[in-house]
TrEMBL record:
Keyword Protease: yes
Source superkingdom: Eukaryota
Keywords: Aminopeptidase, Hydrolase, Protease
UniProt protein name: PSA aminopeptidase
Source species taxonomy: Eukaryota, Metazoa, Chordata, Craniata, Vertebrata
GO molecular function annotation: metalloaminopeptidase activity; peptide binding; zinc ion binding
Ranges where the ERAP1-like C-terminal domain occurs: 3-237
Keyword Protease: yes
Gene name for this UniProt entry: Npepps
GO CC annotations on file: cytoplasm; extracellular space; membrane
GO biological process: peptide catabolic process; proteolysis
Pfam families xrefs: ERAP1_C (PF11838)
Stored InterPro entries: ERAP1-like_C_dom, Peptidase_M1_aminopeptidases
Family under the similarity heading: Belongs to the peptidase M1 family.
Length: 238
């Protein structure tokens, strides 16, 4: 990938190498693949090739997703749980139909108190339903818990599937501002606030504008909150 980004080889060669790892069982390898595909997805997010890139993600991650399933198996270790969350989150964001349906079902059960989501599955489920949700989904997520809303940053990094009757630009702006202002509340961990601002800023041109305005408008409060600690430098960096 580094060679492709430097213009030395074609990105097509990178994708061919990635395809060779479909039977790989190791979490560390999949984490690297996921990160590199995330970089490519960001680069392609505002082009005509984005949807095709998501089809590629589904093709590469589907086999390992089917082998892992949603529930832990006897004898699994910590890395297996991490791998399951990584893979399901990747498939969910890419719009893999079966993963999306199961994530919605499990989130509904979680909200209704029928079956609590395990810690390992909360991140992939939250990210999936938010990526493919609407304003009602966001409202429900905000009510679940303060800390879980950190995952709303994912809304700002990807295209949203919004029903035709919603005005996409207006809704996205509302989501961005809701995410940002929600994270000024005292119940939210300081590092989560910085993470969300960074997620918004790094997601899109619209997100960068919203985050920059938010930081300017709330600079005094943010500065007083973080003082001279490392979080203020991290905030400025993002």
């Amino acid at each position: 990938l580094s060679q492709a980004r430097a213009g030395i080889i074609s990105t097509v060669e990178v994708l061919k190498v990635m395809e060779a790892f479909v039977n790989e069982p190791n979490y560390t390898v999949w984490s690297d693949l996921s990160c590199n595909l995330g970089i490519l997805s960001t680069l392609l997010s505002h082009t005509d090739f984005y949807e095709e890139s998501q089809l590629f993600v589904k093709d590469v991650f589907s086999p390992i997703g089917e082998r892992l399933g949603w529930d832990p198996k006897p004898g699994e270790g910590h890395l297996d749980a991490l791998l399951r969350g990584l893979v399901l989150g990747k498939l969910g964001k890419a719009g893999h139909k079966a993963t999306l349906e199961e994530a919605r079902r499990r989130f509904k059960d979680h909200v209704e108190g029928k079956h609590t989501l395990s810690a390992d599955l909360r991140s992939p489920v939250y990210v999936t339903i938010l990526k493919h949700g609407d304003s009602t989904t966001l409202d429900t997520m905000l009510k679940v818990s303060a800390h879980s809303v950190v995952y709303t940053a994912s809304l700002c990094n990807e295209k949203l599937n919004i029903p035709p009757y919603n005005q996409h630009a207006v809704f996205v702006e509302t989501v961005l501002n809701t995410c940002l202002h929600f994270h000024l509340q005292e119940e939210v961990r300081p590092q989560d606030t910085v993470s969300v601002i960074g997620g918004v800023a790094g997601g899109s041109k619209q997100g960068r504008k919203a985050a920059w305005k938010f930081v300017r408008d709330n600079w005094e409060e943010l500065y007083n909150r973080y003082q001279g600690g490392f979080l203020i430098s991290r905030l400025i960096k993002v």
